[in-house]
Amino acid sequence: MPKTAELADIPLGAHVTSAGHAYEILRDGLIWGRWKPGEKLKPQHLKTEISTTSSALREALIRLAGEGFVTFEEQRGFSTIRPTPSSFLELRHLRVLLELDAARLSVERGNLEWETNLSAAHHRLIFLEDKMRSSDDLRSYIKWWSRYDGQFHEALIAACGSELLKQQFRSIYDKYRLHAVTELRTFGFRGETTTREHNDIVTAALDRDADACTAAIERHVTVYRDGD
Predict the structure, then answer these.
(1) What is the spatial distance between Cα 51 and Cα 114, in angstroms, rounded to a whole number?
(2) CB 51 within 8 A of CB 15
């Protein structure tokens, strides 16, 4: 997502004092699989890696725990969550519900600025996916693909007219991506199939065909029913 991507580009070792900045960097890392499922997130180690204070890190971790991105246990501290097939399916279901509704509204209400931003986000995503299809090392691209894919889907629903709907979608999308990078062998990228699905979504959206757009989104997301 745009805000996350900007903050996460701060190099390790740069001084980050804000708990909000630490939160965005940690959240971004969780989404693209920087830490293993169940891995302990120790503030004394992270504060060196991110170059911030223990208090800012603890505040960020408490916020992430409250949102369901990490877990907290007394005497054990903070850890990354352990995704399960059932939690993945639940998140997929919620993502579909939110994105279909928001995309339909955006297709109906979007203006020229919306079309331009969506086209730009799609161009960035397809450019990266072209490189991924010719690579034998998908993991080296997942950090960027998770961001660009998120930016594309967020641009798609940007004109829905509801800030609350967009906020809820971002939360569910990020948790969905967190699950995808650990539960799916290809992290959710299926080569030409994924690129074709993104093309179908953006073509229908720009044609202002809400039915075709929502159908394309549903095909794109629910294909993970039986894995990747």
Answers:
(1) 37
(2) yes
Q: How far apart are CA 210 and CA 212, in angstroms?
A: 6
pTM of the model: 0.82
* CATH architecture of the domain with residue range 85-221: Up-down Bundle (1.20)
Measured between alpha carbons, how far is 35 from 153 in angstroms, rounded to an integer? 24
User: What does the pLDDT average to over 7-22?
Assistant: 58
| Tokens matching residue 177 | 């991506």
> How long, in residues, is the chain?
228
* Helix ranges, 134-191 (H): 139-156, 163-183
| 3-state secondary structure at position 34 | coil
Question: Hey, what CATH class is 4-80 in?
Answer: mainly alpha
Q: How far apart, in Å, are the Cα atoms of 208 and each of 108, 201, 203, 214?
A: 7, 11, 9, 11
